[in-house]
Write a structure and sequence with these properties.
- The complex is a heterodimer.
- Chain A is of the alpha+beta class.
- Chain A has two domains: 10-65 and 282-421, no CATH class; 71-80 and 103-272, Barwin-like endoglucanases, CATH 2.40.40.
- Chain A is built from 13 helices and twelve strands.
- In chain A, strands 1, 4, 5, 6, 7, 8, 9, 10, 11 and 12 form a ten-stranded mixed sheet that branches. In chain A, strands 2-3 form a two-stranded antiparallel sheet.
- Chain A is elongated.
- Chain B is an alpha/beta fold.
- Chain B has one domain: Rossmann fold (3-Layer(aba) Sandwich), CATH 3.40.50.
- Chain B has a six-stranded mixed sheet with strand order 6-7-8-3-9-10, sandwiched between helices. Chain B has a four-stranded antiparallel sheet with strand order 2-1-4-5.
- The longest helix of chain B has 18 residues, at 200-217.
- The model of chain B is unreliable at 1-21 and 256-261 (pLDDT under 50).
- Classes of the chains: A alpha+beta, B alpha/beta.
- Chain A binds chain B through residues 1-4, 7-12, 14-16, 19-20, 23-24, 26-27, 318-319, 321-332, 416-418, 421, and chain B through 74, 77, 79-80, 90, 92, 97, 99-101, 103-109, 112, 114, 116, 118, 120-123, 131-132, 134-141, 180, 184.
- Magnesium ion (MG) binds next to helix 2 of chain B.
Chain lengths: 422, 261
């Protein structure tokens, strides 16, 4: 019932509640700033951690997208089979294991057909037939092991770019007499472009090549690139290849694509995520760590807010009493304190968003010391400024603060005027 | 409306019918009001109070310290609930109202003045005086604002409108609190020792203002006081003793010195 008419509202929604909340915050001074800082700190931590973790994740994803095949199709590797499981094999005296006879030529002879099939699999961006084998590179005495990849330069650039990582020389227009090697191998062999090196396969075949390009992807040892035909003859594969490298549109769709391919062709298709499970695990662990850290920092700041608001409710008890004596409803008192929480949350999370973004941006400008001449400088901290996560951090902080304000607000609303005005 | 003795002596039997006989509606009525504070040791305070205050009356409530004056006033103002009996405010049974309805009743029917002014530090004198309007309506209309500014001018605070409570004297703050109690134009004002914190001169001024407001606007006042002179200036004096309320016939029974303080 409303004694003289219902409650009209003038001056917009919660005019009274807003006014009291704003005055409390303004009059709160240091206490208000403390609460705002607690929220801001929470948001900064969230933006910083997610920026760092997701930056790392993006960096890894970029590495994946750019420099490794997402699915590799090869002739199935022969696995040792326990003797008992080999049909017809009795208990032998010499070994408990028996190697199945490997096919003489581990090659994909029908690769044009395989390419047609693979290119039709959904999500496949491209498929490149390659010859990829271990070999020795030498210039004079000691040979050094390296992986030789024979591929059409145009396709190779798509699987793992070479030209953009060149320190010296060229890759495009590679002839059958030429090779492009990575900077580490060049250093170990002490060769420069224009020098000649020898590549020897494990079957004994060998040939001599002119180094026309030296590249570096900045991470470990790379491969030596020759043309497809050169590699086919070096490893005695005729017109066959021994691998088809597949790039996906979405790297996380590689598992499904690999399964699909396995069902369609008589070869083994391995996704990057199965080949390097730790890599995937690391990505997952990092994301989990980011979410957990974010959650904990938000929880911590909402506890700070809750405790500060509880103190403020106690300080304001007498005032709450008089407001109720003057006709304020429970709901109105509750709204005042929720609005105070909301005000703190807005100020704090916006300040935190600005601060966090500034910190992450500053970090993103820090560059790794350049180790090799010509190497493009890389970020020391691969941080990412992700507007979505900043918005999420702000939204989460606001939600956490309002939740934190709820309890003190209810407490305030339940105060009895006669108990607090004595 | 009459003030001093002019009213003929009448036997006090606070009973609705009796009180209604003189034509004015009853603003406050209690029937068999009981209150016992329930704690580890129950403290019985009111033992069945029957009283009636008519619209526009100025009633003083006296009694020894701890006799239950504040308890009674808080119950009348819907700030506390009785253990038994009924309270009717402008004919409405408080026991039948829910929390929001009680809040609305406090907002519209009743104004409170306490020993302490309880003005909000964060607000100016004018904002404080308008607070009941703000609570109820969100923002004051021009008419309401004008009315409250007018009242503040009438109590001599015309030049203090934008000062905060800590910038004003105790007497000024209490005068502001009086205007605040009248902001929503209630029909009843409950005042618990409103002059208790003021020196006697300031207290007399503040009392005179309340009496003036009472006469001008016809608001019923129920005022707890320890000051005999102030009590004598009321229309009627009620004494609370041993948990019951008695009418004090001023011409016959002067409350003894023990009654105050
Ligand atoms: N909340 C309470 N709990 C228990 N006892 C109370 C409470 N409030 C008041 N009392 C007791 O009730 C009696 C009346 O108190 P009160 O109404 O404040 O007296 P007065 O205003 O006349 O001085 C006193 O004995 C006091 O101690
Ligand atoms: Mg008292």
């Amino acid at each position: 019932m409303a004694p003289r008419g219902g409650r009209r509202r003038r001056g917009g929604p919660w005019r009274f509640e807003r006014q009291v909340a704003v005055r409390h915050l303004v009059a709160g001074g240091g206490q208000t700033w403390l609460t705002v800082s607690a929220v801001a700190a929470g948001v900064i931590i969230v933006i910083f951690i997610t920026g760092l973790i997701f930056g790392l994740r993006q960096d890894m994803a970029r590495l994946l997208t750019e420099s490794i095949a997402h699915v590799t199709i090869e002739v199935a590797e022969v696995k040792p089979v326990p003797l008992e499981r080999v049909p017809g094999a009795g208990p032998g005296p010499s070994s408990s294991r028996l190697e199945q006879q490997a096919p003489q030529e581990k090659a994909i002879d029908d690769w044009p057909r395989v390419l047609d099939i693979v290119r039709a699999v959904p999500g496949v961006r491209l498929a490149a037939p390659v010859v990829r084998r271990q070999a020795f590179a030498s210039r004079g005495a000691n040979p050094i092991g390296t992986t030789v990849v024979g591929a059409e330069p145009a396709l190779q650039e798509e699987v793992a770019p070479v030209t953009e990582n060149l320190i010296a020389g060229r890759y495009q227009g590679l002839t059958s007499e030429e090779v492009v090697i990575d900077a580490e191998l060049a250093e170990d062999l002490s060769v420069a472009t224009g020098d000649r090196i020898r590549l020897s396969s494990n079957t004994g075949a060998s040939d001599s090549f002119t180094v026309v390009g030296i590249y570096s992807r900045g991470r470990g040892r790379g491969e030596a690139y020759v043309t497809l035909r050169t590699a086919q003859s070096l490893f005695g594969l005729g017109t066959s290849v021994n691998a088809v490298l597949v790039k996906m549109v979405d790297i996380y769709a590689a598992d499904q694509a690999a399964d699909r391919i396995m069902a369609l062709v008589p070869y083994e298709a391995k996704s990057w995520s199965r080949e390097f499970p730790r890599f995937l695990d690391a990505l997952k662990v990092q994301s989990a760590a980011a979410y957990l850290t974010s959650a904990f920092s938000l929880i911590a700041s909402s506890f700070a807010i809750a405790s500060i608001l509880i103190v403020s409710v106690l300080q304001k008890a007498e005032q709450i009493g008089i407001l109720k004596a003057m006709g304020a409803r429970r709901r109105q008192i509750q709204t005042i304190f929720i609005l105070e929480g909301l005000g703190v949350a807005l100020l704090g999370s916006l300040a935190g968003a600005a601060g966090g973004t500034a910190i992450v941006y500053a970090l993103s400008l820090v560059e790794q010391p350049v180790r090799r001449v010509g190497q493009t400088p890389e970020q020391l901290f691969p941080v990412a400024i992700l507007p979505v996560y900043i918005a999420l951090a702000v939204a989460a902080a606001i939600a956490a603060t309002v939740v934190a304000a709820y309890l003190p607000a209810r407490r305030a609303a339940a105060l009895n005027p006669v108990d607090v005005m004595r | 409306m009459s003030r001093w003795a002019p009213e003929p002596p009448r036997p006090f039997w606070p009973n609705g019918h009796e009180a209604a006989r003189d034509g004015r509606p009853i603003a406050i009525e209690t029937r068999g009001l009981r209150k016992t504070y329930l704690g580890k040791v129950p403290v019985p305070v009111l033992h069945g109070v029957d009283l009636a205050v008519r619209a526009g009356e100025f009633v003083a409530l006296i009694g020894q310290s701890g006799s239950g004056k504040s308890t009674l006033l808080n119950i009348l103002g819907a700030l506390d609930v009785p253990t038994g009996g009924t309270v009717l405010i402008n004919g409405q049974d408080l026991g039948r109202l829910d929390d929001d309805a009680l809040a609305d009743l406090r907002s519209q029917e009743i104004g409170f003045i306490f020993q302490e002014h309880y003005l909000l530090d964060e607000f100016t004198c004018l904002e404080n005086a308008l607070m009941p309007v703000t609570i109820h309506e969100g923002d004051a209309s021009d008419a309401q604002r004008q009315r409250v500014v007018g009242l503040l001018q009438r109590v001599g605070l015309g030049d203090q409108l934008h000062k905060h409570p800590d910038e004003m004297s105790g007497g000024q703050n209490q005068r502001c609190a009086i205007v605040r109690a009248l902001a929503n134009a209630p029909r009843i004002v409950l005042a618990d020792e409103p002059t208790g914190n003021l020196d006697s001169t300031t207290g007399a001024e503040v009392f005179a203002l309340m009496r003036q407001m009472n006469r001008e606007s016809g608001v019923a006042f129920m005022m707890i006081t320890h000051d005999d002179r102030l009590a004598r200036a009321a229309d009627r004096v009620l004494l609370i003793e041993d948990g019951l309320v008695h009418e004090v016939d001023e011409t016959l029974h002067r409350p003894g010195p023990g009654a105050a303080r």
